[in-house]
Amino acid sequence: MEGGDAWTMKSIVDKVKADLANDGNVKVAAVDADGILRGKIISKDKFLSVIEDGFGFCGVLYSWDMHDTAYALNSTISAADEGYRDLQAKVDLEAFYRIPWENNIPFFLLKIHDPETNEAMPQCPRGLLAQICDQFEAQLNGTPMAGSELEFYHYRETAESLADKNGINLKPLTPGMFGYSIQRPTLNQEYFYDILNTCTSTGIKLEGWHTETGPGVFEAALTYGPAKEVADKTSLFKLICKSIGPRYGILPCFMAKPAQGMPGNSGHMHLSVLDKKTGQNLFARDLADPSPEWPDIAHLSDFGRHFLAGVLDGLPDIMPLLAPTINSYKRLNENFFAPVTVSWGLEHRIASIRLIAPPVCSKKGTRLEIRTPGADVHTHYAMAALLALGLRGIQNKIPLTTPPMGNEDSSKFAKLPKSLQDATDKFAAPGSIARQVLGDKFVDHFAETRYHEIREWNEAVTNWEVTRYIETV
C-alpha cells in the first residue's frame, strides 16, 4: 500500500471509530447472487477487531437460492463437498449508513474476497461492479455514473396472509389505474412519507416519488451519482420499503410482473461517464454533429456512440443479469410498453435503450436509459454488465450500425431472449460476449444459479395448471 493510501485508510478508520463511540453493536451485510442483502449484527468490539482485515463469512452465501435451497450442482465458490468453507468478508468503510427504523444502528456493506488469494471474488456483486468501474478509471480516466428507477406494486397483505393465500387474490393497496396522481398518495400518506423521509435520513435521496399506472403502484427515482453508490442505494431502498411496509400492513412487491393483464414493474437504469479530472460528460458533444448518420445521434459523442454500440452488441448475451427470474420474461411482452428488441432511439420509450440528449436535456445530462430491466433486476450485476459492454465498445471502437427505432415496424430489429432458459443458454454459451467481458468464473457460477431457478420452475405445479386441467383432461 502506498504511503498516501495508508494514511487515507488510517484517517477513515479513525473517523469510523469516532463515529461509533456511543454504539454497542454494528450491522453488516453482503449482497448475494439474487441481490438480497444477507448479514448479521455483531458487537462493536468484534467489529473493531475485524475492521481492517475482515472476517470469515460462510460460503453458502453464494451456494443457495433466495429461499435457502442449495444449488443441485456444486457451486464454483463454496461447495458442499468442501464443507461450505468460509469466504473472507471485508468491511467497506465508505459504505457506512445508519438504519433509522432499527434504533439508528450503524450499518456497513461488505465485499467478499477469496481467503486464499485475498483477491475480490468476481461473483461478489459489489466487487464485480467495483472492478468494472476501476477499469473505466484506469483505462479511460472516466467515472461511471448512474441513476435508478423502480416501479413496484403494493398489497394490503402480510407475510402470513401471503402464505395463507398462496400468492393468489392479493388485495392491492389502492384499486384501479392512476399514474402521477397527486391525490392517491394522501390515502396512505403515513406510509408514503415515511418511505420518503426514511430515505432522506439514510442518505438515499429520491429525485422523484409518485404513483404509477397500476393498482397500488409507486415509482421511485434515485438521485444520479457514481454507479457503485447508486447500486448500493438501490439495494438499500428495497430494504427500506420491505422493512417499513409491514408496519402499515403493506407488502411492497418488486416482481417484474405481479398480475396478469396489468402493467409490469420496470427497473430502468440511466448511465453516463464523466471525465475524472474535468467532470465533463463524455457522452456529450461540444458542438452538434452537422452530418450524423442519423439525426438521433447529432449530440452524442464518438465515445458515447461506441459505448452504445457495445451495449447493443452484447445486450442479448447478458439478459439473465437484466431479467434474472422466470417472472421477468412475463413483463417483456410486446403488448405492455416493455422492450423486446435490440434497439435504441432518441427519446424512444419502446426501444431497449432510450437516448436522452439535447435539445431534450442539457448537454451535461446526455445519457442512456436502459429500459430492459424490471424491478426484480440485480442492480449491481446489471450495471457491471452494461458498463462492461460499453467499455468493450469503446476499446474496440465498435461502430454503431443499428439504426434508431422510429415509427416503423419493430420486427426488423433482432429479438431479445423470450425466457430465462433461452437467456441463460445464450449467456453461458462458449465464447459468449458475457464471458468476454465478465469472465468464465462469474458466468459459470451465475449461469448455474439461473439453471437452478429454471429447474425449480420446471418442477413446480401451478394453480393455472390445476384450474385449467383438473376437470377437463
Automatic annotation (TrEMBL):
<feature type="domain" description="GS catalytic">
    <location>
        <begin position="125"/>
        <end position="473"/>
    </location>
</feature>
<dbReference type="Pfam" id="PF00120">
    <property type="entry name" value="Gln-synt_C"/>
</dbReference>
<dbReference type="GO" id="GO:0004356">
    <property type="term" value="F:glutamine synthetase activity"/>
</dbReference>
<comment type="similarity">
    <text>Belongs to the glutamine synthetase family.</text>
</comment>
<dbReference type="InterPro" id="IPR014746">
    <property type="entry name" value="Gln_synth/guanido_kin_cat_dom"/>
</dbReference>
<keyword id="KW-0547">Nucleotide-binding</keyword>
<dbReference type="GO" id="GO:0006542">
    <property type="term" value="P:glutamine biosynthetic process"/>
</dbReference>
<keyword id="KW-0067">ATP-binding</keyword>
<dbReference type="InterPro" id="IPR008146">
    <property type="entry name" value="Gln_synth_cat_dom"/>
</dbReference>
<protein>
    <recommendedName>
        <fullName>Glutamine synthetase</fullName>
    </recommendedName>
</protein>
<keyword id="KW-0436">Ligase</keyword>
<dbReference type="GO" id="GO:0005524">
    <property type="term" value="F:ATP binding"/>
</dbReference>
<dbReference type="GO" id="GO:0006576">
    <property type="term" value="P:biogenic amine metabolic process"/>
</dbReference>
<dbReference type="InterPro" id="IPR036651">
    <property type="entry name" value="Gln_synt_N_sf"/>
</dbReference>
